[in-house]
Amino acid sequence: MLFRSIDTETTGLDPITSELVGISFSVRENEAFYVPVPADRDEAEKLVALFRDVIEDESKMKIGQNIKYDYIVLKNYGVEIRGDIFDTMIAHYLLQPEQRHNMDYLAEVYLKYRTIHIEELIGSGKKQLSMRDVPLPVVSEYACEDADVTFQLKTVFEKELKKENLEKLFYGIEMPLVRVLGDMEMEGVKIDTNALRDFSVILTEQMRKIELKIYEEAGYEFNIGSPKAVGEILFDRLKLDEKAKKTKTGQYSTSEDVLEKLKDKHPVVELILEHRGLKKLLSTYVDSLPTLIDKRTGKIHTSFNQAVTATGRLSSSNPNLQNIPIRTEIGKELRRAFIPDEGCTFFSADYSQIELRLMAEMSHDKNMVDAFLSGEDIHAATAAKIYKVPIEEVTREMRNRAKTANFGIIYGISAFGLATRLNISGKEAKQLIEGYFETYPGVKAYMEKSIEIAREKGYVETLFGRKRMLPDITSRNSVVRSYAERNAINAPLQGTAADIIKIAMINISRRFHQENLKASMILQVHDELNFNVPTHELDTVRNIVIEEMENAHKMNVPLIAECGSGQNWLEAH
User: Fold this and answer.
1) CATH value at residue 260
2) Distances (CA, A) of 88 to 62, 139, 315, 521, 572
3) What pLDDT shows up at residue 1?
4) What CATH number did the domain enclosing 393 receive?
5) Which long-range contacts (CB under 8 A, 24 or more apart) does 435-439 make?
């Protein structure tokens, strides 16, 4: 089989808005070709079309470094990368998830070769050029080198993937996902700017009311946005902590962690935290989202990153739509601004307690497995067993404590951490944890086994073979070691959950294409998938999404997906 490495040069970093400057190809090591593309759009599309047969050839593998970028750029010019793909960035991510994955670094480490760095061509800062301004001989050498180095890295990484038993994960999950994410990014999500404008007014008014309460509690007005002023109020004036830590600049630390520990000492602390939360919501999302709307499409196009998190979860950037706060009612309101296209419905589906279900599956704990198989409320069932009462006698407080225990303990929470979270004594927390492990002895055994495996191998794995390297598992520093031990327990759970939703995304996308549906997947937020669905397709889409999510991986403990629909994200979820 003839492998082809492909790389695009563009006018910017955003594949949605950037213009194509040129395409480079490599079909054998130490040989590459560069094709400059004219600035005129019509002429550019005609030129790119000349390469349609080779780029869309299903029988030929295409190699790229971050090939999703090239996929989007070329699709914007009317040509789609088809056939099997091999992304060297993602290959390295699977091999070494916590290292850097950029091509300059990979070339130096694996090929002992220093590449031409982009800054050498276009500079940086205010004087930065566009790639279109770079002389043809210079850009040609740079682009050809990119294609050739990528080709050579593929030769190295395909052997490493085989050696580490990562081929199935790479070719079966990560590579098919590239196109799914590329299509999602191109589709984008529609924003109701009027709703955001109204929300901005409400938030500003709420912040003003909180400011007045803060001044009242503090005794005088000060700059709430100044960490220095906040520190002086809390520690010099109110004396909330005689041993308050200071930063390198000599002022008091007033980070969120610091303030959280002081919440019960004075009402002003809770108010300052609330004010900060609203201010962040306002600046990060409410006021900034409208500025990110693409003029051509009228939508926001986030980037979904496959090679960032150590656990295998996707991340989102420019803007980060996975970080929208949902724990508070005011934070949830932001979802009202995410709307479907005209004539469409916003559809949302998410996995119910997937990581707890995976703990039951992977630990084989009989009590936990039975609770899920019987369809019981897992938190009520846990509470009933811990407190030794019939399930119908479980109170709301018992259930809440059991819920916190369920999610906290599987991530290695300490008695102190549990006591802090539940606002109970250390003794009660210790008893709760002991009761939990008495109820679910298989979970305790799984946790101990995970740490043992990590010490023996230096890593842990998901059910699909994704590795999380844990070099600190044998550290002499107890804090560092404890952190690695917690990761040994939760990385297989988080990573397996991430793998499962990726499989669901691939299968849902395939079904949509097979059934010629106009519906499109637009957002992924951890265990949740969101869709823009023509209203007449809603029933069909609901059936496909639930079926594919619940059957993404066969387990003894059933996967359950819950769904909803509406005229915005808030209504749908």
Assistant:
1) 1.20.1060.10
2) 11, 22, 19, 26, 37
3) 42
4) 1.10.150.20
5) 435/385, 435/386, 435/387, 436/382, 436/386, 436/405, 436/409, 437/409, 438/386, 439/367, 439/382, 439/385, 439/386
Cα 450 to its chain centre, rounded Å, is 24
**Helix (H) / strand (E) containing 465:** none
Query: Taking Cα atoms as reference points, which of 304, 336, 346 lies closest to residue 321?
Result: 304
The answer to whether the CB of 502 falls within 8 A of the CB of 526 is no
Boundaries of domain holding 234: 191-300
- Residues 464 and 441: their CA atoms lie apart, in Å, by 25
Q: Residue 247 has what DSSP assignment?
A: -
- Looking at 187, 206, 241, the residue that finishes a domain is 187
Q: What is the pLDDT at residue 399? A: 92
The number of helix segments (H) and strand segments (E) in the chain equals 24, 16
Helices (H), 282-395: 329-332, 354-363, 366-373, 378-387
Per-residue DSSP letters for 185-236? Answer: HHH-EEE-HHHHHHHHHHHHHHHHHHHHHHHHHHSS---TT-HHHHHIIIII
- By DSSP bridging, strand 467-469 and strand 459-461 are antiparallel
pLDDT of residue 3: 60
Angle, CA 486 vertex, CA 484 and CA 488 arms, to 5°: 70
**Parts of the chain with a pLDDT under 50:** 1
Whether residue 20 contacts residue 37, with contact meaning beta carbons closer than 8 Å, is answered with yes
Cβ–Cβ under 8 Å, residues 471 and 458: yes
Q: What tens digit of pLDDT does each residue of 349-397 get? A: 999 999 999 999 999 999 999 999 998 889 999 999 888 899 999 999 9
CB 272 within 8 A of CB 262: no
| Residues 312 and 306 sit within 8 Å (Cβ to Cβ) | no
- For the CA atoms of 536, 539, 540, 543, the dihedral, rounded to the nearest 10 degrees, stands at 160
CA dist 334 and 325 (Å) reads 8
CA distance 16 to 28: 30
Smallest Cα–Cα separation from 368: which of 274, 481, 552, 493? 493
- Cα(503)–Cα(523) distance, rounded to whole angstroms? 15
How many other CB atoms sit within 10 Å of the CB of residue 546? Answer: 17
CB-based contact 536:528 (threshold 8 Å): no
Buried b (16+ CB within 10 A) or exposed e, 494-522: bbbbbbbbbbbbbbbbebbeeeebebbbb
* Number of domains into which the chain is organized: 4
Nearest-CA neighbor of 532 among 298, 190, 176, 183? 190
Domain end point (choices 129, 154, 187): 187
